[in-house]
Inverse folding.
């Protein structure tokens, strides 16, 4: 078995590689705050000194989809915004994750009306839903930790 | 101040008067729609009346009301800056002839408002330069605020508008102005040389959901075309869904950085319509939370603004001020950010014991943060170069655009509804109103800082003067009984049940009430049909009128100045788009 | 006619009119529990107290004879106090049940507490407990704690139903409504006590916990269980009928309806044919109709059509015009094998169909068995009826036909038989899904409104007729675009010549229906001065329950 085959078939190496990759990714998430409404203000609170998202490595917020890998949709997404949400998501490079922050992003919240998208999962795939209106910063951090756990479980090289 | 002379208004309107519908302390007249331009112009140019500000232009679908003449009615709220008088002019518009004359040339603030009326109701305005949708997306079919449009009927949007039509219009305008001044008109080639940059709606400088299409010549902005509606969440339609108190959470999320002010503004408006008087303690508490919200709002606005011009440190400082106030508010209302604290007839709960001491302690801690930030920026050369002289506006233009609040005060107009209208004991508090000189971004930022300090003064005085006593008005027709009683006896249970499921009937009628929120005048035009559910809740958002002036503010400036200009206006999309 | 004054209103009243009814006419609502315009006056709730000038104590409005010149005050402070006092007593032992009580949203106690109660309770003892969820009969359940002992139910059973099943046992605070041992509340009108009960004591087992009343939307309709055509109101939600309640009509059913009519809505909700089926497969309605019409063209009239006396007037008019004039068939009959029902003096008629009168007037009567077995045609079309359900032996009669097609509302035995023979099954809309009219046994034309959106691709009978005519290219399209215009045009254009059928102006059928021919049955009108249909006082915006006074 040559090195390449070893790298992709030997379970020990692949698990170690996957673990290392996951560790690197989850601790250096670059959030793209797709902030539209009140949840964006709460997100600003999470980023601030009191709750300090940089403890978890996610402090480099990048507003450009080319430079980020975690899109945090914080706030209500209305139908007018949907093409833009799709486009921004499409412009992000893999691997990419989406946190739906707040009930408006998760399900439309209490805006059951003619202009509000009833949940961004109709448009982009969501990894973690963080409920709340707005969710308290601790809850968002909990969501981030759950996402990190999910990234831990992602397997790149291992088959199944 | 002297009272508005209704007879003089009647005289000006003359034969075109249909009815006098003054009520609840407002003066209001219904006028024939053919005469609306003449009447409004006469009201503005009259020496005594001088109604020079168009506070709001809205419409209502009256098909469910007993009292109506035609199906639709367009409502103009006028304000006289010099006298402090308010006037409401209503124009019935029949369904068969759904059009009206535009007044966009009389007041610049009417432009977008008329587009909104077209968007929501389908009423056309003759002479409007570009009557198209402003809040709903361009693929939307129908007019959502009409009573026959089902609230939850959503419509998908597949594409974003290119805004080419508006670009063509501004080029037309540019050519026209060049002709007037005798200048060279820009040629086709010159226009094509310019660069079009689309900024937003997903952009750090856009504060959420604002989109601006700028046409640049090098670094200079030739034209800026804003597009809004990316956070239009249907507040006004949702308000018609539940009972009067159900609107409170929606009102919170209008200007979500100062949610408590919006609560109080809405509760005050409904209380005016229903004729309820709240106890003094409630008024003082509302003053305290309003001023706390003011501090929070100004902190966020300035923090974001200063970050946008490049100074990041202040963001952490000012957000810490916000976090400190959050601890107090979380204890008081249960939520940090969107606290639905006010209720129609009072408040959700009384202050907790120790509130006054805690607030004082927190504010004492906040003062050094504010002062530190001021030290960092006030005389900072770079900051001054970025903001002094940037996006300056004259007082006359500001009035024409319908500006209120700190932006108007920065332009030199000392209008503060707290001093002018004196509700909630504001006339007894000792505080100053900071007024700027040039109306540029620097003035706005400084006015906001100074208002924070003045708010601290007001809070101290309010806490000192707060009386003991009930916090809700006595009427259990409006106010929920205490929960312990609700679980124990049938009468409070029935009371609670009926108030929650059906709401309290507010006698049929309508009114306009305004409140000085951190961003300016937040007005509510409310119509009740006699049931427990609101019939129409129209929000007069201060941001709407501020943002309309944005193209004028940044024209001829550099691209980098866009950030300073936009941030200093404090455009909160929740309020702008509702 | 005496003239009286109530508050600021002057009015002329009937000699024997009740003061509560007179006040309602001028928009003054006098709160009451035990009074009902169709029952004798009991005067036991004391809630309707009013001040009559010249009399020192407050008088109950329901039992105060009207004199000329009488002046009545209903809004004075003393009266408010009196009302509050009565409410307080009634509520003293009332259970804390609002969240689980069906009556919430149409409960008089709630309404009256909010409009003139709003006092603080002075209770300092435990409430008296009584049995709850007592099974009184097949349709009614009793919660004795909620009962305010107005005795409307007792009087109803005595006077209207005539069966006298309920009475008040015990006395004082132990008083309870109950039935006699071994004699449950099973008269055929027992459901009406649920309507007239002002609180949540008597509840319908059928409707219990199904839906909150403020979610219900209302549509006026006509019952289709017998030829009386009681006026009803369909309360619906989630596009399903949740309950049927009677509407007031002084000439037809007053305030009542029978139990059988109440539960007949189940066939509107369940086992519906929603999509067309052709040759065992579900297809688009247009495909199935197209296929059927092709065959009809080929058969060139060698078809027999069985309609139903359950179809509306407009359905019958269009279909008989289609199958007699445009595409004449061998035989056209509208009949059904549904057995006769017990008839009584109160409401129920033996004939279980809502529209037999029109069938007879159009000359469509016939014998179903004869028709099916001996028609000699090659194809059979059944619209609306279920002959095989009523007589399963007729299934082999279907074998005599080359083609069978049916347009039915429910998946019944006939539908199954048609599908077995690879026929064409089309979905038909029930009367709850379109606007039309029925003619009851006395020739009274009564309109009904649509309540639900049609299930699947169901069409009304007349719409089906118009479609078939159009596909056979013998079409007529009654001019008009909206359903109202079409229905109007049907009445104007499609009445068979020479019939003594009336000219019905569709848009102006009056509120209580009208009997347009000379063949009226002599039925005394109940003494009900004033035509206000429903108790308009409502704390909330929606219609109060039941056509009963409330």
């Amino acid at each position: 078995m040559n090195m390449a085959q070893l790298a992709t078939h030997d379970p020990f190496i692949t698990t170690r590689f996957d673990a290392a990759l996951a560790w690197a990714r989850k601790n250096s998430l670059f959030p793209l705050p797709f902030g539209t409404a009140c949840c964006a203000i709460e997100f600003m609170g999470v980023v601030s000194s009191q709750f300090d998202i940089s403890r978890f490595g996610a402090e480099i917020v990048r507003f450009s989809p080319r430079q980020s890998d975690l899109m945090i949709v914080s706030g209500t997404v209305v139908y007018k915004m949907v093409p833009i949400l799709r486009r921004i998501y499409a412009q992000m490079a893999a691997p990419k994750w989406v946190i739906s922050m707040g009930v408006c992003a998760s399900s439309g919240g209490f805006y059951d009306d003619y202009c509000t998208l009833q949940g961004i999962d109709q448009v982009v795939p969501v990894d973690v839903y963080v409920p709340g209106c707005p969710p308290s910063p601790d809850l968002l951090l909990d969501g981030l930790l759950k996402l990190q756990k999910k990234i831990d479980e992602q397997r790149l090289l291992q088959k199944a | 101040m002297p009272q508005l002379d209704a007879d003089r208004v009647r005289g000006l309107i003359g034969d075109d008067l249909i009815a006098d519908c003054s009520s609840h302390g407002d003066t209001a007249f219904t006028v024939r729609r053919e005469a609306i331009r003449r009447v409004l112009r006469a009201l503005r140019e009259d020496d005594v009346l001088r109604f020079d500000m168009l506070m709001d232009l809205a419409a209502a679908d009256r098909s469910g009301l007993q009292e109506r003449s035609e199906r639709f009615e367009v409502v103009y709220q006028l304000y006289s800056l010099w006298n402090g008088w308010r006037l409401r002019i209503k124009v019935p518009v029949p369904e068969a002839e759904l059009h009206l004359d535009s007044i966009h040339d009389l007041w610049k603030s009417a432009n977008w408002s008329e587009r909104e009326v077209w968007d929501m109701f389908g009423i056309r305005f003759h002479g409007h330069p570009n009557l198209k949708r402003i809040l709903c997306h361009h693929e939307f079919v129908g007019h959502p605020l009409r009573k026959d449009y089902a609230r939850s009927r959503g419509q998908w949007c597949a594409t974003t508008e290119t805004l080419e039509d508006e670009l063509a219009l501004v080029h037309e305008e540019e050519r026209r102005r060049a002709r007037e001044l005798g200048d060279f008109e820009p040629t086709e080639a010159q226009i094509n040389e310019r660069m079009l940059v689309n900024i937003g709606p997903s952009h750090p400088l856009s504060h959420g959901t604002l989109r601006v299409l700028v046409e640049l010549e090098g670094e200079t902005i030739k034209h800026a075309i804003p597009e809004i509606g990316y956070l239009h969440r249907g507040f006004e339609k949702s308000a018609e869904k539940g009972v009067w108190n159900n609107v409170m959470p929606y009102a919170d999320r209008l200007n979500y950085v100062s949610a408590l002010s919006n609560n109080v503004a809405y509760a005050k408006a409904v209380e005016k319509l229903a004729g309820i008087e709240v106890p003094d303690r409630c008024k003082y508490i509302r003053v305290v939370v309003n001023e706390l919200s003011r501090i929070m709002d100004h902190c966020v606005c300035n923090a974001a603004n200063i970050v946008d011009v490049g100074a990041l440190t202040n963001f952490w400082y000012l957000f810490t001020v916000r976090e400190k106030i959050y601890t107090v508010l979380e204890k008081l209302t249960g939520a940090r950010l969107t606290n639905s604290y006010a209720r129609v007839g009072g408040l959700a709960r009384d202050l907790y014991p120790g509130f006054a001491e805690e607030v004082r302690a927190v504010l004492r801690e906040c003062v050094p943060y504010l002062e530190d930030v001021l030290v960092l920026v006030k005389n900072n050369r770079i900051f001054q170069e970025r903001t002094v002289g940037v996006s300056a506006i004259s007082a006359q233009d500001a009035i024409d655009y319908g500006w209120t609040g700190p932006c108007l005060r920065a332009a030199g107009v000392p209008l503060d509804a707290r001093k002018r209208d004196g509700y909630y004991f504001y006339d007894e508090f000792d505080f100053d109103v900071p007024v700027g000189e040039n109306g540029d971004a620097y003035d706005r930022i400084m006015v906001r800082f100074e208002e924070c300090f003045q708010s601290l003064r007001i809070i101290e005085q309010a806490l000192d003067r707060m009386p003991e006593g009930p916090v809700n008005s006595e009427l259990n027709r409006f106010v929920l009984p205490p929960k312990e009683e609700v679980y124990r006896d049938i009468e409070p249970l029935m009371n609670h049940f009926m108030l929650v499921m059906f709401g309290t009937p507010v006698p049929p009628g309508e009114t306009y009430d305004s409140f000085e929120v951190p961003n300016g005048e937040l007005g509510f035009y409310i119509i009740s049909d006699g049931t427990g559910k609101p019939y129409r809740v129209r929000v007069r958002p201060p941001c709407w009128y501020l943002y309309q002036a944005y193209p004028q503010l940044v024209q001829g400036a550099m691209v980098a100045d866009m950030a300073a200009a936009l941030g200093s206006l404090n455009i909160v999309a929740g309020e702008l788009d509702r | 006619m005496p003239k009286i004054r109530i508050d600021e209103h002057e009015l002329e009243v009937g000699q024997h009119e009740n003061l509560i009814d007179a006040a309602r006419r001028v928009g003054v609502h006098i709160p009451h529990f035990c009074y009902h315009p169709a029952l004798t006056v009991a005067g036991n709730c004391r809630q309707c107290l009013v001040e009559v000038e010249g009399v020192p104590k407050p008088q109950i409005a329901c039992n105060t004879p009207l004199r000329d010149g009488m002046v009545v005050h209903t809004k004075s402070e003393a009266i408010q106090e009196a009302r509050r006092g009565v409410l307080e007593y009634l509520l003293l032992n009332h259970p804390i049940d609002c969240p689980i009580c069906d009556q919430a949203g149409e409960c008089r106690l709630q309404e009256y507490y909010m409009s003139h109660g709003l006092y603080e309770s002075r209770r300092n003892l435990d409430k008296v407990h009584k049995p709850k969820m007592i099974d009184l009969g097949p349709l009614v359940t009793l919660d004795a704690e909620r009962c305010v002992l107005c005795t409307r139910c007792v009087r109803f059973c005595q006077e209207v139903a005539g069966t006298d099943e309920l009475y008040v046992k015990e006395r004082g605070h132990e008083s309870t409504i109950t039935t006699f041992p071994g004699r449950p509340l099973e008269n055929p009108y027992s459901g009406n006590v649920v309507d007239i009960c002002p609180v949540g004591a008597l509840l319908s087992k059928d409707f219990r916990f199904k839906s909150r009343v403020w979610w219900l939307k209302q549509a006026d309709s006509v019952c289709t269980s017998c030829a009386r055509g009681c006026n009803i109101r369909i309360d619906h939600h989630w596009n399903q009928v949740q309950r049927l309640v009677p509407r007031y009509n002084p000439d037809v059913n007053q305030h009542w309806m029978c139990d059988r009519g109440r539960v007949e809505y189940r066939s509107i909700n369940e086992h519906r044919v929603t999509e067309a089926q052709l040759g065992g497969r579900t297809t688009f309605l247009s495909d199935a109709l197209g296929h059927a019409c092709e065959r009809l063209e080929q058969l060139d009239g060698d078809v027999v059509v069985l309609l139903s006396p359950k179809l509306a007037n407009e359905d019958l008019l269009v279909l008989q015009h289609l199958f007699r004039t445009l595409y004449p068939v061998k035989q056209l009959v509208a009949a059904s094998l549904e057995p006769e029902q017990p008839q009584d003096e109160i409401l129920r008629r033996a004939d279980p169909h809502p529209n037999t009168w029109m069938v007879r007037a159009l000359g469509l009567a016939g014998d179903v068995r004869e028709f099916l077995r001996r028609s000699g045609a090659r194809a059979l079309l059944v619209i609306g009826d279920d002959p095989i359900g009523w007589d399963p032996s007729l299934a082999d009669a279907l074998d005599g036909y080359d083609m069978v097609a049916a347009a039915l509302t429910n998946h019944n035995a006939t539908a199954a038989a048609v599908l077995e023979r690879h026929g064409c099954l089309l979905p038909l809309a029930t009367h709850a899904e379109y606007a039309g009219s029925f003619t009851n046994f006395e020739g009274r034309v009564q309109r009904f409104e649509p309540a639900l959106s049609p299930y699947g691709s169901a069409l009304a009978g007349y719409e089906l007729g118009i479609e078939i005519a159009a596909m056979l290219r013998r079409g007529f399209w009654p001019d008009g675009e909206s359903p109202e215009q079409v229905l109007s045009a049907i009445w104007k254009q499609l009445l068979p010549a020479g019939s003594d059928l009336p000219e019905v102006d569709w848009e102006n059928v009056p509120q209580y229906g009208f009997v347009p021919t000379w063949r009226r049955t002599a039925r005394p009108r109940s003494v009900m001065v004033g035509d206000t249909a429903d108790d308009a006082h409502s704390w909330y915006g929606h219609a109060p329950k039941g056509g009963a006074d409330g």
